[in-house]
Amino acid sequence: MAAIYKSGEELMNEVRKTKIYGESVSFWNLGQAGILLKGTEEDGLLCIDPYLSRSIEERDPKTEFKRAFPPVVDPGMLRDLDGVLVTHGHDDHLDLLSIKEIAKGSDSMFAIPAPLISLVQEHVGKKYIHAAKDGESFTIKGFEITPIPAAHTEYETDSLGNHTFLGYFIEVNGIRLFHSGDTVVTPELIEKVKEFKPHVAFLPINGGDYFRTSRGIIGNMSFREAADFSAAVGVDLIVPIHYDMFPNNRENPVYFVDYLFHRYPNQKFHMMVPGERFIYHK
Amino acid sequence: MAAIYKSGEELMNEVRKTKIYGESVSFWNLGQAGILLKGTEEDGLLCIDPYLSRSIEERDPKTEFKRAFPPVVDPGMLRDLDGVLVTHGHDDHLDLLSIKEIAKGSDSMFAIPAPLISLVQEHVGKKYIHAAKDGESFTIKGFEITPIPAAHTEYETDSLGNHTFLGYFIEVNGIRLFHSGDTVVTPELIEKVKEFKPHVAFLPINGGDYFRTSRGIIGNMSFREAADFSAAVGVDLIVPIHYDMFPNNRENPVYFVDYLFHRYPNQKFHMMVPGERFIYHK
Amino acid sequence: MAAIYKSGEELMNEVRKTKIYGESVSFWNLGQAGILLKGTEEDGLLCIDPYLSRSIEERDPKTEFKRAFPPVVDPGMLRDLDGVLVTHGHDDHLDLLSIKEIAKGSDSMFAIPAPLISLVQEHVGKKYIHAAKDGESFTIKGFEITPIPAAHTEYETDSLGNHTFLGYFIEVNGIRLFHSGDTVVTPELIEKVKEFKPHVAFLPINGGDYFRTSRGIIGNMSFREAADFSAAVGVDLIVPIHYDMFPNNRENPVYFVDYLFHRYPNQKFHMMVPGERFIYHK
């Protein structure tokens, strides 16, 4: 049973060939929270939370975190990448092997939550690491990026007050995108995202519960919270994420679709299969 | 609870403003089987099966076919329309009131299954009616259209051998689209669609059963058949239709999503809310 | 669309006529968390959390807690009742109007969490009130009952250390039943219920989330936690509750069924419609 729509060099060719006109942006689903973003040629190519290896299960063959499908591309194939945004330090978001290979194969820079940059330094050679901090905007080619704190499931800062869990506001080519990272819903998050007015929101829907928490699996907003959150803040298109890769920490995305269909029948969403491209137009 | 994403002149403005670049096509969900298609400016604007009134419930207040949401546009607003394709004579596909208003407000022509053109003639004034026949291709501006027979739930022809139930193969701007009309799956349909290789297939998912049939509701392919059919013939993107407008003849589209997610995890689909635009890129 | 299977005197006749043989017990779904329990004739008739009025919406017409279906019986019809168990003080569990009518029409006693008995006293005339306390077993005819603390969503005690949120272990005619009241999952709950080894567990599945909590709706275990909890402690039959009555605080029970079907395909459960009887046999 093939789980991936397009992969490897075929996918990378599609990325290269994709041309963006007008106010629009293209993105690809890399699985779990991994998103590849492309604006116009001048805007460049950005990747969020690439888990493009099997590091977790190779390091610990007994882990319950076994991939349901192979990496859609090898990290070394991301040769044209201009930047990588990492939301937090969990292995399925900050994968040092993927980062190392990306650093070898491209000129990408790396935006890493400030408290975690020491973990990454030895793996990226001379590539530039940006210490991402709450509210401090920065630019990667045409992408304007503002980190915001995420609560996974609590807000957490280091001794300097820098947040270890981040989400990202991204503006490119007239489009505002919000990648929440791993987070629950908080009043602060609602307020910030409402102000940002994202066209597209990438939101986890796998939730959290007593049993996963007791096995060390930190929770996220639930499918229901992702829908209610989007309605509360105003989102044009919801892209549910963080449900496809690990069967042990999955939520059936159909619950999300069912809840939307009955509760918010006019709310746009798009469910992506691994390796799928979606071009969003304003 | 708002059921419509965008409607009325706001929607029509979006239609006018939507620019198509490269090999792509834009379409809007008008509800039930109604689709509005736009290619490049030269390609023009095409509409399939517009049910943009409340004719059914106005004619028979006791009908079980009551709209769950209002028409997303008034038919008279479709001023730039170049063509209307009708798949068959049922009221939710061939709505004489919608057709009459479209004829008044635009220069559109009307492609009607050959056996049904007499029903339409008095309603369209001097506008051109094309008698659509199985396998006989015709052109509306940039749209190349080929009717194929549909089985709802049997193939049915008039005394001249012309089919009363049709689907349409549509080629525009490098994209091949298939609107099945109302049909079940047949060996002939599989063969024809496999040969056509559609990028996008608009397929009913509401199915049919003894009880609906016994109330005079003619069946369609089921959500499961739509998924298996797409896998059998090869479809890049499935757009499920014919489930949103009439609660009495609905199938929960979530069953379709659930079946795809578990059985065809690499199959792209997009579920549209009423009044939503989707731009498909090759 | 009738929402109730059987109601009123027809239901009460069924209750009277139901004969229990061997090790078994009969119960009826009264809606929300309301359960009516019958053992042999000697065991008597017990009711848990009866919300058999419209008190909430009558007191506050603007409440979002509006019944989706009428009371399945009038509380005054419960003439043969021997006892009422109340799990906690929320209006849909401790309904003073239902209690008052039951006290008028029957010889029932009332087991109320110790911190709440003063609320009830004026409503039950000379009927006996039992102050239910964690771990202190008591008997109502053939029913042996042990209150245990519930966490809704925290454990809460009064100044004397008595819990305001309770669940009940109930043994009757060789059958062990657990009615959790409103609670989340805790390590203590797992330990206690595992030791009790219930044949039947009545568990809420409506969960809780940021948005309901922020509207003052206190959470329960989710459908997924109810399933995982049952697997963790060992339950022969799960009866999901607390999802049918209030659309604003409902969870689609289908998510529960779907999760069980895929994750615990050998776990027995029974989903009850309002007014339905189920006879459980050991």
Total strand segments of chain A: 14
- Could you give the order of the helices and strands of chain A? HEEEHEHEHEEEEEHEHHEHEE
| Overall morphology of chain A | globular
Oligomeric organization of the protein chains: homotrimer
**Which two protein chains have the largest interface (Cβ within 8 Å of the partner's Cβ), and how many residues from each?**
A-B, 33 and 33 residues
| Category by helix and strand content of chain A | alpha/beta
* Gyration radius from CA atoms of chain A, angstroms: 17 Å
**Approximate strand percentage of chain A:** 15-25%
Largest pleated sheet of chain A: 7 strands, mixed
Question: What is the count of helical runs of chain A?
Answer: 8
Residue windows where pLDDT falls under 50 for at least 5 positions of chain A: none
In order across it, which strands form the biggest sheet of chain A?
Answer: 6-5-4-3-2-1-14
Instruction: Please estimate the helix content of chain A.
Output: 10-25%
